[in-house]
Amino acid sequence: MLISFLDKLKLKYKGKRVLIVGLGLQGGGLAATRFFVKLGANVTVTDLKSKEQLLPTISELKDLDIDFVLGEHRLEDFLLADLIIKGPSVRWDLTELKVAKKAKIPIDMEAAFFTSICPAPIIGVTGTRGKSTTANLIYKVLKDNNVDVHLGGNLPKASPLGMIEKINAGDWVVLELSSWQLSGFHRKKISPHIAVFTNLYPDHLNYYQTMDDYYEDKKAIFQYQKNTDYTIFNKRYLDLLGDKHGKLITYEGSNVDFLITNLSGEHNRENIAACLATAKLIGTDKNKAKVSINQFLPLTGRLQTIRKVNNITFVNDTTATTPVATIKAIQAYKNNRIILILGGNSKQLPFEELIPVLGEVDKIILLKGTLTDLIYPILKKEYQNKISKVYDDMELVIQESYRIAKESKQPTTILLSPGATSFAMFTNEFERGSIFNKIVGGLQ
Questions:
Q1: pLDDT per position as a tens digit, 180-198
Q2: 2 has pLDDT over 60
Q3: Which of 102, 174, 252, 406 registers the highest number of CB atoms within 10 A of its CB?
Q4: Does domain 112-295 have CATH number 3.40.1190.10?
Q5: Over 66-106, what HEC string results?
Q6: HSE-up of 13 (CA within 13 Å, CB side)?
Q7: Which residues are listed for ATP binding in this entry (predicted)?
Q8: What's the pLDDT at 7?
Q9: Quick check: 27 pLDDT over 70?
Q10: The pLDDT of residue 433
């Protein structure tokens, strides 16, 4: 079945002109490019970033016959295409895309395209926070229960099209889906068979004009389901659901009635509850699921304990790019003495709720960025004796944090949970976290 399935795609796309808009550095554009080249399409890749910026990805495509248009977009490439695959970070209001749409050129996105051709049922997971952890928990529980399952989506190097050849009709697929990816589902009017919704907080308001716009994209995960599909929804957010969804299953953190070993915080109890609800629906053994969950370790950059030096614990929560995420991190370690590494660029999100919570930490070490500039006068007024100067060097930040922790001689958690994006100092939050890990690993 798989061979005929791929053969049908080859017949459809062989010789067709496919334009990949947005190559990126996290693997999405890479996998889509490889996929369409393998189908025999004539592929052009265009990205506003330069060749030098995209070199890590381009080097992985060097043996393929591809045309690259970098540092610019050419309108003729859009108008000559038989299919355009838009990257998640490329805006729909890009001039060339609007012209192509008017010319009735098909425009798709990788995750939505994958969902429309995937031979196996899909479990889609979205939410402002917890979607990566929940998706990975579901994947582990199913895999440990001998279910043939695949994991992909909004995860580094986990592009759905990169795994399509391995998927059979009797398998399951778990996809983590961002709001940007789900915007493509709206345009195809499709939703996954099982939709898991974790929560909703202000985020990406540097991209969306309003929270309503943000949630509108999120809703695509369940809005086009049939009555044979399922929506697994956090009970705290039921007022957001509306009436367009599959069969409803709700969950809450209090459903988790066993000791959690490795995942800190109430938010992780909700992630586990979502996982258990999904696993139950699919028919896995609950006791086996509990064992799998307690073997699960925090994902990279998500309240991840990196190292313990005597009585000092280093925690990497670099994916906390919103004030709400930092609040959750502080609450997860509320019984600890905390040195918080905070700051970076703003997503234009409300930060007022964060300010009083910072009273629970012992020291605040600041990273430079537009959010830091915004909150610094407030911090200076409220917490003058707690805040450091603003740093633009992660090594100096860690050295200062480590010095303060050692001098206190008390058990201390040094928590990187910036509450902001990384772009003032780093390529992305994963680079920020990787540099943190490397420096911490080298401490004497």
A1: 999 999 999 999 999 999 9
A2: no
A3: 174
A4: yes
A5: EEEEECCCCHHHHHHCCEEEECCCCCCCCHHHHHHHHCCCC
A6: 23
A7: 127-133
A8: 87
A9: no
A10: 98
The three-point CA angle 206-208-209 to 5° equals: 95
Q: Could you state, in order of their start, the residue ranges of all structural domains in the chain?
A: 12-105, 112-295, 304-441
| Residue (of 231, 229, 277) closest to 252 by Cα position | 277
- Give the residue among 114, 65, 109, 103 at the shortest CA–CA distance from 81: 103
User: Do the beta carbons of residue 25 and residue 427 sit within 8 Å?
Assistant: yes
State the binding site for ATP.
127-133
Q: Does domain 12-105 have CATH number 3.40.640.10?
A: no
Residues 6+ apart with CB under 8 A from 59: none
Dump pLDDT digits (tens) for 87-110: 998 999 999 999 999 999 999 999
pLDDT at residue 380 greater than cutoff 80: yes
205: amino acid identity, one letter: L
Nearest one of 173, 170, 281, 169 to 231, comparing CA atoms:
281
Question: Strand pairing of 17-21 and 304-309?
Answer: unpaired
Task: Extract the annotated binding site.
Answer: 127-133
Structure tokens belonging to residue 315: 């925690």
Place 322 in a pLDDT band, splitting at 50, 70 and 90: very high
- 127-137 residues labelled b (16+ CB within 10 A) or e (exposed): bbbbbbbbbbb
CA distances from 154 to 68, 157, 305 (A): 24, 9, 23
Architecture of domain 304-441: Alpha-Beta Complex (3.90)
Q: Decide the pairing of beta strands 304-309 and 312-316.
A: antiparallel
Q: How many angstroms from the chain centroid is the CA of residue 439? A: 24
pLDDT (0 to 100) of residue 261: 84
- Per the DSSP assignment, residues forming a β-bridge with 109 are 86
Cα 290 to Cα 155, 197, 249, 258, 280, distances in angstroms: 24, 21, 20, 8, 12
> Are 344 and 351 in contact, with CB atoms under 8 Å apart?
no
Angle at 230 between CA 227 and CA 235, to 5 degrees: 125
pLDDT band at 1 (very low <50, low <70, confident <90, very high): very low
Contact yes or no for 278/118 (Cβ under 8 A) = no
The position carrying tokens 């051709």 is 117
Exposed, middle or buried by CB within 10 Å (0-12, 13-18, 19+), for 51? exposed
Question: Of 216, 214, 219, 189, which Cα lies nearest the Cα of 202?
Answer: 214
Q: How many residues does the chain have?
A: 444
Output the six-digit token pair for 278. 């999904």
DSSP, collapsed to helix, strand or coil, labels residue 299 as coil
**In whole angstroms, what separates CA 186 from the centre of its chain?**
19
> From CA 389, how far away is CA 372, in angstroms rounded?
11
